[in-house]
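Supplementary Note 3. Input sequence used for the single-chain structure prediction.
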Amino acid sequence: MTANKNLLRMKYARVIEAYAARTGCSLGEALDAFYRSKTYELMRDGVSDMHCMSDAYLVDELVDERLETVSVPPLSVAEEGAVYGKPKESAPPPSP
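The predicted structure, written as discrete structure tokens, is reproduced below.
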């Protein structure tokens, strides 16, 4: 199913504005992120009726997609303990 081109463009604008508001990025950055996303491709191509999804759902998809592309450095042992609620290993006191 294909959407009306004007309605689709209005949907794009709403999703881009909502993404910028949610992430705190500029509208230009949000525009760039949107048009480079898989979510945009799916909406543009009419796959799975993505254009029928709510704006909030599409923003969630964009955020998830961006998080998947960001590389996160591995946690150090001390950071891992803090994340998983394990006490940090304390260093031995300095010798006098």
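The chain has a mean pLDDT of 81. The helical segments are 5-23, 27-35, 38-45, 55-69, 77-83.
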